């Protein structure tokens, strides 16, 4: 199944996507709600509503404004340094334990929404990433069982403000500016992609300029290994989000000059078999002005 959470004139709903058309699952069964949490928590509901799709009315996907797949995720855990060539371009040693950090809810936004370059920095960078949504929670999850805990996969742009990321050994400031982490719009269930979403082309672009191009098969820590590692120290819960790190080609490592995102550009992150997360870049002062006038 391919899901899309989004807004129409009728409100926010969950849609099932088939090609260029989408069926409103919330209209078929109100229990589905306005994000994926009901389907995550009740596999029987997901099966029930899926059986009602054939013959149901549809709308063009293009008529839907994406919203966050999970409106209020409990925990957002991000994996850094998960592609060898990205580690080398950043000047780091290859670690023997994954570099993990967290994002707050104000730092994330939906695909299609403005990705905001903050007033205090012009070093806004892009990071194409695979993201998974936890379906079944748990603690001390074994690697062998880990993929059973995945509800689905989506696309993430881990927008990073590099000079703030490097102010300390902790990356938190540079990874948590408001409206810098774009998620979605499509969430695919595990049966739609190879096991662990491995072997998928992953790319970031601005227009015809290819910024990053790699494959999720190049990740050092797989989805299953990452879930097992994280669940050693914390209980994962349904709807938690885990980002799987970025491949080489990020802006700060471009030679001879860094390649920062600038207002007026549109950055696309695409993962084969999942979809494209596309966001316009705006300046913070313009974003605030637009919000004030809305």
From TrEMBL:
Name of this chain's protein: 2-keto-4-pentenoate hydratase/2-oxohepta-3-ene-1,7-dioic acid hydratase in catechol pathway
Keyword Metal-binding: yes
Pfam families: FAA_hydrolase (PF01557)
GO MF annotations in UniProt: isomerase activity; metal ion binding
UniProt keywords, alphabetically: Metal-binding
Organismal lineage: Bacteria, Pseudomonadati, Pseudomonadota, Alphaproteobacteria, Rhodobacterales
All residue ranges annotated as the Fumarylacetoacetase-like C-terminal domain in the record: 75-282
Family: Belongs to the FAH family.
Top-level taxonomic group: Bacteria
Biological process terms in GO annotation: carboxylic acid metabolic process
């Amino acid at each position: 199944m391919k899901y899309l959470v989004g807004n129409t004139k009728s409100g926010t709903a969950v849609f099932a996507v088939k090609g260029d058309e989408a069926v409103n699952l919330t209209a078929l069964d109100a229990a589905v709600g306005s994000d994926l949490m009901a389907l995550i928590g009740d596999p029987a509901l997901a099966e029930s509503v899926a059986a009602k799709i054939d013959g149901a009315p549809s709308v063009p996907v293009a008529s839907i404004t994406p919203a966050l797949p999970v409106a209020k995720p409990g925990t957002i855990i991000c994996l850094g340094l998960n592609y060898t060539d990205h580690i080398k371009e950043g000047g780091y040693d290859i670690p023997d334990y994954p570099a993990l950090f967290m994002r707050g809810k104000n730092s994330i936004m939906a695909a299609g929404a403005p990705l905001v370059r903050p007033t205090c920095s012009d070093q806004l960078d892009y990071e194409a990433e695979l993201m998974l949504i936890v379906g079944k929670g748990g603690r001390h999850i074994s690697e062998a069982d880990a993929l059973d805990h995945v509800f689905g996969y989506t696309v993430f742009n881990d927008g990073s403000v590099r000079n703030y990321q490097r102010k300390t050994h902790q990356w938190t400031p540079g990874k948590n500016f408001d409206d810098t982490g774009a998620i979605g719009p499509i969430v695919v269930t595990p049966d739609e992609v190879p096991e662990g979403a491995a072997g998928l082309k992953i790319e970031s672009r601005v227009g015809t300029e290819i910024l990053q191009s790699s494959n999720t098969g190049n990740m050092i820590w797989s989805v299953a290994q990452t879930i097992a590692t994280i669940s050693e120290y914390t209980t994962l819960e349904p709807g938690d989000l885990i980002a799987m790190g970025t491949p080489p080609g990020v802006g700060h490592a471009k030679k001879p000059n860094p390649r920062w995102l600038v207002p007026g550009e549109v950055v696309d992150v695409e993962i084969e078999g999942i979809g494209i997360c596309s966001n316009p870049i705006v300046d913070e002062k313009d974003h605030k002005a637009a919000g004030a006038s809305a």
